[in-house]
Amino acid sequence: MSAATIDAPVAAPAHDGRIGPRANLRHISALARRNLLQIKADPESMFDAVLMPVIFILLFTYVFGGNIAGKGHEQEYVNYLVPGLMAMMGMNIAMAVGTGVNDDFKKGVMDRFRTMPIARSSVLIAKIVVEAGRMLVATSILLAMGFALGLTVHTSVLHLLAAVALAMAFGASLMWIFILLGLTMKTAQAVQGVAMLVLMPLQFGSSIFAPTTKMPGWLEGFTKYNPLSNLADAARNLINGGPVAHSVWMTLAWAAAITLVTAPLAVSKFRRKT
């Protein structure tokens, strides 16, 4: 056998679409387990999910809470801030997915997966499943810190769980954007740079940290169409009480639209990436 034969890349298996749903679920489960084992081998990869919610809630509560809610009313601001930070957690965890996918391609891991008789989408879905788990950890820590600082649920536990589920669904849809970005950009640093250019205006031009009524008119108009504002308002009203139908449906519509557009593009890019 010649060296050329040995070094030749293995062709991707044909008939990828014929893999049945049950086999696809097995593949997703196996790949998700592989990703979890990576986290177990490198616990430092959980630092962002564990420390980020602690730092953000302490920083914004005690640095901005007095200015926004009034000095001595920081506890009231916690009830405004925590639902907003639930929306923010999803975006920050989603950004890590893009850099992770880019890094896996650099290491040749993804090329190996593409030679296996598995659905190409299963590799990416497994990534999202594990990152959704990291998002749940971050959200749980955020809520624990919120309760420690005086967060009060004025509705019910079911409404709180609905807010968490809504944030998780929207965060999962954002992961497809960052996966596509990770597959498109050449380096992980480029992914982070472009992601920050997108994240900063969306996060601070929203109702996450402060009511939008005191913003300039043009910025207040932008916040109305900002999906993060819809998610923050939905989570806030689910926890504190208030009308939720419009903001919930708008958030779900955004999540569905983002997924329907970016998921096929990400899978297609994954198939063709060299």
Description of the structure:
- The chain has 274 residues and is mainly alpha-helical.
- 78% of the residues lie in helices and 0% in strands.
- The protein contains 12 helices and no strands.
- The protein has helices at 3-7, 21-41, 47-63, 65-69, 74-107, 109-114, 120-148, 157-184, 188-204, 217-225, 227-240, 245-272.
- Helix 3 runs parallel beside helix 7.
- The protein starts with a helix and ends with a helix.
- Mean pLDDT is 83; it is low at 1-17.
Specify the number of helices.
12
Point out poorly predicted stretches. 1-17
Helicity level, as a percent range? over 70%
Overall form: elongated
Strand content: under 5%
Which structural class is indicated by helix and strand composition?
mainly alpha
Distance between the termini: 26 Å
- The string of secondary-structure elements, in order, is HHHHHHHHHHHH
Over the alpha carbons, how many angstroms does the gyration radius reach? 21 Å
What oligomerization state is this entry in?
single chain
Query: Biggest sheet, open or closed, and with what strands and sense?
Result: none
Question: What are the SSEs and their pairings?
Answer:
Blueprint: H1 3-7, H2 21-41, H3 47-63, H4 65-69, H5 74-107, H6 109-114, H7 120-148, H8 157-184, H9 188-204, H10 217-225, H11 227-240, H12 245-272
